[in-house]
Amino acid sequence: MNLKRLAVIAVILSFVSGCKSTPDIRDIPLSLTAKNKTLEYKKLPGVASNVVTLGTVKNALREHVSAHTGYTQCDIECGKWQTADIKSIWGKKVSLTDSEVKITYFRGDKFRSGSTYLSKVHTAFPYQIEETTESFKVNLLPAMTATAEDASDALFIPISSPISDKTLQELLDNVMDKPGKDIDRYVYSSGSFDVDFDPASVQTSFERKLKQRPNENKSNKRVYKNSFAFNSGGTVANVDLEIFLYRGKSKVEYRLSHPVSVSPDGTSQYDEKLMGILLEHLKSVANS
Known about the structure:
- By secondary structure, this protein is α+β, with helices and mostly antiparallel strands.
- It has helices spanning 3-17, 54-67, 165-177, 199-209, 274-286, and strands at 24-27, 37-42, 78-81, 86-96, 100-111, 116-131, 135-140, 146-150, 183-195, 211-212, 223-232, 235-246, 249-262, 268-269.
- The protein is built from five helices and 14 strands.
């Protein structure tokens, strides 16, 4: 008799005999010695004003907690089929409410029919976010409680916990000890400028001095459409270009972008003048 049939029989017997199918809930003792953690993300001006927002700050907080609480390759779910119908799964889910970063670890079996048998561990980090005119300040508190759901599979064999009590404590401490997550985004600026050369010559200048991104040339007989990457003053920027004939000259429409990073210690790698410098570099290339 195969494993699938045994599992089905066991499930039927559980209903018939009234065998216990709900998991045992137990409290996991936690050390409450860690101090609160403060993160501050400064708002940025100009074209970067949408980099630091409540949404990006919350996402950075979630990523920070997720990065230091294990199962980094199984942030949603990992699994391996044991038979054609039974899959062993394990992993971790991290989610935010308005006041907590919730974590659920899990391990167990998932049937192709949709039935699951999982042992779980639940915990959460309380937090508050204060917005000022200059920044978002995050106050992250240590996890205060944790619970385990010790379950059994379809054959009533205990499913091991997805994480030991000791390892859980070590990971929770990591969250409070490690530096917070940077907010990494791109900033954008669009516009146009004229060039006193024909479109083919302008296109040639860009091809000669900039690095064309693979599979991004969508030119036709009337309009040159390209995407380039280039380095200016140590910053690697990207630009999408359209070059076409306009009143006997060339019109260049651009969409410029470059990366920016905001750290949780109140600093950032952002220069409000950089976009203008990049644009002047483009104009110089177009007119060369």
